[in-house]
Fold this protein.
Amino acid sequence: MSDELLRVDGLHVSYGRVRAVRDVSFTAPRGELISLVGANGAGKSSVLGAVSGLVRPKSGTVHYDGANITRWPAHRRVAAGMVLVPEGRQILTTLTVAENLLLGGWRRRRAAATIAEMYELFPVLAQRRDLSAGTLSGGEQQMLAIARAMVAQPRVLLMDEPSMGLSPKLVDEVFRVIETIRATGVTIVLVEQNARRALRAADTGYVLETGVVSHSGPAPRLLADRRVVDAYLGG
Ligand code: ATP
């Protein structure tokens, strides 16, 4: 069994003439947290789209648990344990909190048990389980999006900007939850504009700049690299 749960090689994504991702490669070892950071428009969401099967890459390959899944449809990837927490949460605001969580557990045998675990991890969701999800605050909706993904029992969790639009206190809470999930053994690919926070949480980091990986390596090394700090972490 290889150490790598996920491996992306030579990924290119284009939208018409826009070359959003160019020759991006990275690996996610089992149980580790890797982070892709970079400015708005750097191509981070496009990489996650190609990994989760929502975007068809122009070229390159995605391997998951030793299998070439580049051409697998998105639903097959979810069934195999690759679950996305999408940018902007995308929860169903007219359904209740409980119904949103049930959707995450669609076709999962242990759904009820996992939902109970999520109510323990997120007491605020338990308190509001019968309210429509649209009444939750932005931070609570983000927690719901993460909890819904966890109910799908991921082996690898793909997170697209979970801290976006949240107050500093809620950003802290989201990162605490990410640490907790990671401690359960789930492999995490975290995409963030909040590069400093993401790299502090990560084992390995990849800096994306206009579609290309400009720097990569152990996250502590990137955090100490003057070029990375000056260009991406605000000095
Ligand atoms: P953000 O933080 O804004 O999501 P990002 O780093 O995730 O940024 P992408 O969303 O992957 O970056 O976008 C990379 C590039 O591809 C940008 O130039 C963007 O305008 C372009 N792009 C993304 N999606 C599409 C699309 N569906 N059609 C055309 N261009 C797109």
